[in-house]
Design brief:
Elements (H helix, E strand, L loop, with lengths): L4 E3 L5 E3 L5 H16 L4 H12 L13 E8 L2 E15 L2 E6 L2 E5 L8 E2 L2 H13 L1
Antiparallel strand pairs: 1-2, 3-4, 3-7, 4-5, 5-6
Length: 131
C-alpha cells in the first residue's frame, strides 16, 4: 500500500492525493482498520524496534495447531498428526514442540516430511508410495 499522507515542511500533515471527500474517507477507513486490530503508533514503534533487534519472528503455525508428519512405523510410511504446544526459533530453524515428540521444521523438510494440512501429507505419501 502506498502512503496516504505526507508531512509538509511546515509540519502540517495532509493527504497526498488532496483533501477530497473520497480521499478523506479512504484515509479514515485505513485508520479504522489499524484501530480495529489494536495498532497505534506506540505499538508499531515497539514492534518495529523488536523486529530490528531480531527479538520477534513469525511462527509458521499457531500453538495448539495440528501438523502432519510422515514417518515410518514398522517399515511402513504413515501420517502422524501432531499437536503443536510450542515453537522455538534458533539458527534460522524452527523447532516445533509436539505432544510426545520434538520435530525440526525447516525449509529442507517442510513439504517433504512435515505438512500443515492432512491433504498435503496424503498427497506426498501417495507420491512417495509410487516411487
Amino acid at each position: 500500500m502506498s502512503r496516504l499522507t505526507e508531512q509538509l515542511d511546515n509540519g502540517v500533515v495532509t493527504l497526498k492525493k488532496g483533501m477530497t471527500d473520497e480521499n478523506i474517507q479512504e484515509a479514515l477507513c485505513v485508520l479504522a482498520d489499524y484501530e480495529d486490530i489494536g495498532l497505534n503508533a506506540e505499538r508499531v514503534a515497539i514492534l518495529t524496534a523488536a523486529g530490528e533487534d531480531n527479538r520477534i519472528f513469525i511462527s509458521p503455525v499457531k500453538i495448539g495447531a495440528t501438523v502432519y508428519q510422515i514417518g515410518k512405523f514398522k517399515g511402513v510410511f504413515i501420517i502422524k498428526p501432531r499437536m503443536v504446544y510450542g515453537v522455538e526459533f534458533k539458527n534460522n530453524t524452527y523447532t516445533l514442540l509436539f505432544d510426545g515428540a520434538i520435530g525440526r521444521l525447516n525449509e529442507s523438510n517442510l513439504g517433504k516430511w512435515w505438512f500443515f494440512t492432512r491433504a498435503e501429507a496424503e498427497t506426498a505419501l501417495t507420491e512417495r508410495e509410487k516411487k
